[in-house]
Amino acid sequence: MNTWKTETLKRIAAAEELRIAPRRDDGSLREPTTIWVVRDGDELYVRSWRGTGGTWWKTAQATHTGHIAGGVEADVTFAPVGDPAVNDRVDAAYQTKYGHYSGYVEPMVGEQARATTLRLAPRS
Questions:
Q1: Quick check: 32 and 70 in contact, CB under 8 A?
Q2: Chain center to CA of 13
Q3: For the whole model, what pTM was predicted?
Q4: Which end of the chain is more exposed for a tag (fewer CB within 10 A), N or C?
Q5: pLDDT digits over 39-78, tens only?
Q6: Contact 105, 95 (CB under 8 A)
Q7: Which CATH superfamily hosts domain 6-122?
Q8: Which residues have C-beta within 8 Å of that of residue 70, sequence separation ≥ 6?
C-alpha cells in the first residue's frame, strides 16, 4: 500500500471533515458523503457512523477505491482494518479529535462503527 507524503498527511488529518466518494463498480464516483477522519501515526482512518449499513461504506468495501476532498483532494484506496489494537488507537484518535461532539463521538467508537474501520491510502 502507498504511503502519504508528510504535508498531505498533515493536511488531511487536520481537516475537521472529509468528503468521501467511493468508486462504483462501473468506475463512476458516488455522491460525496461528509465523514470524520483520524490519524494514527502515518496512517489515516475513516469509519461509517451507520456501521455496515452505511451506503458509502458498502461501496468502499466492495471496490476499495474512491476520492476524498478535505485538506486536499486525492484518489484513495480503502483497506479494511481487523486488528483490535489498531481499532483501539483509532477509538482514542476519534475521542481526542472529536470528543467535543459528545453525542456523536460515542457511536463512532462503538462496535457497530468499529466494524467498518477503513485505512485510507493514496492511490497511485
A1: no
A2: 10
A3: 0.95
A4: C
A5: 999 999 999 999 999 999 999 999 999 999 988 999 999 9
A6: yes
A7: Electron Transport, Fmn-binding Protein; Chain A (2.30.110.10)
A8: 12, 15, 16, 17, 18, 19, 37
